[in-house]
Amino acid sequence: MPDEPDLITRRRFLRTSVLGAALTWTIPVFLDRTFFALRAEAASSGLQTPTGRDHPILVVVQLAGGNDGLNTIVPFGRDAYYRARPTIGIPKQQVLSVDGLVGFNPALALLKSLYDSGHLAVIQGVGYPNPNRSHFVSTEIWQRASDAKGMVSQGWLGRYFDNCCQGADPTVGLTIGGQLPQAFNAENPTGVTLNRPNHLGFDREPDAFDQEAFEATNGLEHANMTGDSIGNLSGTSSSVLSPLEYLQRTALDVQVSSDQISAVLKRSKPEASYPPTRLGRSLSLIGRLIAGGLPTRVYYASQGGYDTHQGQIGTHHRLLDELAKAVAAFCSDLKAKGIFDRVLVMTFSEFGRRVAENASKGTDHGTAAPLFVCHTAGLVWEAARTGPPRRWRSRLQY
Amino acid sequence: MIARLPSRNWNFDTAAHLLVRAGFGGTPAEIDSLARQGMEAAVNSLLYGAPESVQPPSWAVPGSLRALQLEVRQTADPEEKRELKKQVQRRANEELSDLLHWWILRMTQTRAPLVENMTLFWHGHFATSADKVRQPHKTWLQNETFRAHALGNFGVLVKAISRDPAMMVWLDLVQSNKNKPNENFARELMELFTLGEGHYTENDVKESARAFTGYRIDPLTESFRFGAKQHDPALKTFLQKTGPWDGDQIIDIILAQPACTRFLVTKLWKYFAYDNPPPELVESLASQFRAAHYELRPLLETIFTSEEFYGNRAMNTQIKSPVQLVIQGSRSVGLPVLEGEYLRAGLRQLGQVPLYPPYVKGWEGGKSWINTATLTARYEFARQLVVGVNHRRLGLPRPPKPIPPLAEPPPKNERWPLGLAQNPSSGVMFTQPPPPRITAPLEISRLVTEKDRHQPEKAVRELFVRVFQTSPKPALMNEFQQLASTKGIPLDDPAIREIVALMMSTPHYQLC
C-alpha cells in the first residue's frame, strides 16, 4: 500500500494536472483564484485525504420505506413472534437458522452463505432514542445521525467530508441516482451523483463556436482568453471561495468527474453476473468504479419499496431476494477483482416495523431493525441473542 | 444608524437589484420604470403593492378528503380498503401537485411579488412539510396564512402559526395534553422561529410546552379549537416570569426578548442581502424593529433603502434558489413553467420543492443549492426550457395515468384574474389528460424585434440585460458578442435560442 508522501504527490498531481490542466501563464482571473483557493484548501488541511484507490471504501445501501426487521432476521424460536404474526410469520421450517433461535428469511439464502463464510455481520436492533415513526423525519434523523430533535444540519457523511476530506477530489462521495442524499449535506458541499452513466456531465455543443463560448464562460477552457499571470496572484490564498468561485469550481468538478468516470468505466467490467434490478445495476456500476480506480471513499445506493403496510409476504420476499442477489453478486465481483478487502458494505433502513401484523396482512411503522455489514473479515453476531426479544412486551419495540 | 442610499446612486442596476431580491426580477422595461420612479417610489410600490385576489384551488375546502377517509375507515373488506386508501393517497398527491403549480404560477404572475417572496420566506422559516401533514387543505391554509401576514406584524404571525392546523400536525401540538405535554412545538418555537439557540433553557421548553396544551383541530371545519379540558392552566415559570401562562402569553414573553428581534433581522438580512451581517447593522435593525413593535414594512423599507443593501457585498453575490431561478426565468425572459407532476419532479432535480422543505430548519440556502447534480440540472433545464422541453430528456417521470372522473365533478372555476385560466388545476385536474411530452419553447419574437435581428450587437446587449438583470459586464458580454458574430445576419430563432441557453448555462446566471 503506498504511503502518505505518495498521496501528497498524487494530490498535487491531481490539482495541478486536472484543475490546472492546460495552465499557461495567461489564465482568467476567476479560474486562477479558484485554483489558488483550492490549493490553499488542500495545503491547509494538515492531513492529506486518503483516496479510495488504496484506502477503505464504504458502500451504503439504503433500504427505503422501513424494512421489516422481524421478517428479515426471524426470531423463530419465540412463540410470541408467531402469536403476533399469525399470517405473515415466516414458518419455522423455512427459516435459515443461525443459532436455533433466530435465522435468516429464506429469501436471504445468499446472505446466509456470506454469513456462514464470515463475510457478513448482522447487527440487531439498530435505531435511535425517542423514535419517530414518520418516514420523512426518521430518514432525516438517520441521514444526519442527529438525535430525534433533528437539529444537526449536516449529514453524517457530509461531516466526514468536511472534517477529513477538504481539498479532496469531488468524487470522494458518489451517489447512484439523481440526487445527493441528505447524508451528504456538508458545510463545503462535495460529492457527485451518477444518474445515467451514458449521459455524464455537460452536453457537448454540436457547434464548435457554441462549445467554445460555453467553455469560456464556465472557465473550462482558457487557451484563447487573456488574464493576469499566476505570479500576480500570490495574495489570493483564501480558503473560502466566493459564491462565483464556488460555482466555477462545481462546473469544473462536473467536467473533471465526468471525464474521470467515463475513463474509469472504459477500463473495467463486472466480473460477476448481477440481477437485472435497479440495485443490481447500481452495485455493478459501483464495482466497476472501484476497480477502475476512482478515488471515491463513500458510495451510496438505494433500494425502495419496503413500506409494506399490506400484503407484505410476497413484496417483502421479492425485495429481500433482490437485495441478497445484488449484494452477493457485488461480493463475488469484488472478490474476483481482488478488492473485497478494501470495501465494506452497510445497509440501513429508516425504521423497522411493529411486531404485530395489521389487519391487511402487513406491518406498520416501528422503530429499530437489523443492519447488515458485509466485508472480507469475519464479523461478530452480537445482539441477536440479547437484543430485542427481551423487550417484546412493549408493543412498539421494533 | 443605517445610511440610506443617496438618490444620485439610484440607477438601472440598483433598481434591478431591488426587483430581483425583493421580488423575482422582471423585464428590462419593468426595471427601467423602477429606475425612473426613484428609490422611494420603487420601494413603496413593492411594499404596498396589493396582491390580487386569486381563487383558491377548488379542492381547498375543509374536509375535502374527509368523506373518502371516512369511507376508508368504515370499509371492512381489506381489498376494498386498500383500494380506497390508494385513492386517498392519489387524491392528496394530485392536490399537492396542483397546489405547488398554483403557487408557482402565482409567484410568476403576481403584481405584488414581495408578498409572494415573503410568503416563501415564511414558508422556509416556519418550514412545514406536506409529507408529514398529508392533508392538502391544511397545507393550502398555511400558505394563505403566510400570505395574509407576509408584510404584517411578526408577533401576530407567530400567534397565527401556533394555531395553524398544518403546523399543529407537523410539530405534534395536536397530541399534546396536560398529562403528556409534547415539547416539539415549544422547542422549535424558540430555537427556530423566534430566539435561536442559547437564549432559553430546557426548563423553559418544558414549562412553555405546558402552556400550549389543549390546542386541537376541529375535524369538520379543520380550524383551531381550544380544548380547555386538555389544557394545563397551572402556574408556569418561563424565562424568569411566573404566571398561569397560556400559549399567546408565552409568545408575548418571547417577543419581549431582545434576542428575538436580532434573530429575525439577521435572518431577513441574509434572505435579502447577504449572510453574516456585521453586528452593528444587526443591532440598528433590531432596535428599529423593536421600536416598530415587530411591524415588518418599516423594517423592510429600511433594508431596501439602505446603502449597504446596494453595496458590493450584496449585489450579484447570492446564489439563486431553484424557486428564484424558475420564477425569475419566467418573469424576465418568459421561460415556460412546467406543469403538474413534471413541475414537482423538475424542482426536485433542481433541489427545492416548495411545500416539501427537507426538514424543520427549512432550506439551508447559499452554496448548499449547488452540487454537480443540481448545476448540471440547472444547465439542462435552462436549455430545454429555451428550446422546448423534452420530458424524457430531463429524466422527468412518465405522464401519470389519467385519473377516473369523480362521480360529481368539482365546480368549474371561472375567475382567474391573473391569466391563471391556463392552469389545468382546480376543477378540471382530475379529468385532465396528461400534459404533452414537449412543453412549448420560449417565444423568441417577444425578446428580439425584427429590426434588432439585423443588429446582432444591439440584440445581444439587450438579451444580456434581460437574462442577467444587470447592465452589461464587458468581459462576459464580450464572449456573447463574439459568439453572435459567428451566427448569420439576421439572427434567426435557433441562433437566438442558442445564445440565451448559453447565457443561462453560466456560473454568473446562477447568481443574483
Keyphrases for this structure?
heterodimer, A: 398 residues, alpha/beta, seven-stranded mixed sheet, 12% strand, globular, disordered C terminus, B: 512 residues, mainly alpha, two-stranded antiparallel sheet, 6 strands, 51% helix
What does this protein structure show overall?
By secondary structure, chain A is of the alpha/beta class. Chain A has a single domain (51-201, 243-391), classed as 3-Layer(aba) Sandwich (Alkaline Phosphatase, subunit A). Chain A has helices at 4-19, 29-44, 79-84, 109-116, 135-144, 156-164, 208-217, 243-266, 278-291, 312-337, 383-386; strands at residues 57-63, 73-74, 96-97, 103-104, 120-126, 173-176, 192-194, 298-303, 343-349, 369-374. In chain A, α2 packs across α8, α4 (109-116) packs across α10 (312-337) and α9 runs parallel beside α10. Among the domains of chain B are: 7-48, no CATH class; 153-317, no CATH class; 444-510. Chain B is 51% helix and 3% strand. Chain B starts with 11 loop residues before the first helix and ends in an 8-residue tail after the last helix. The interface between A and B is large, with 54 and 46 residues.
SSE ordering of chain B: HHHHHHHHHHHHEEEEHHHHHHHEEHHH
Which sequence of strands runs across the widest sheet of chain A? 5-10-9-1-8-6-7
Number of helices of chain A: 11
How many separate helices of chain B?
22
The secondary structure category of chain B is mainly alpha
Mean pLDDT of chain B: 89
Strand order of the largest sheet of chain B: 1-2
* Largest two-chain interface: A-B, 54 and 46 residues
**Fraction of residues in H or I helices of chain B:** 40-55%
Q: How many domains make up the coordinates of chain A?
A: 1
Taking all Cα atoms into account, the compactness measure Rg of chain A is 24 Å
Order of helices and strands of chain A: HHEEHEEHEHHEEHHHEHEEH
Shape of chain A: globular
What's the CATH topology label of chain A? Answer: Alkaline Phosphatase, subunit A
What's the number of extended β-strand segments of chain A? 10
Percent helix among the residues of chain A? 25-40%
By DSSP, the count of extended strands of chain B is 6
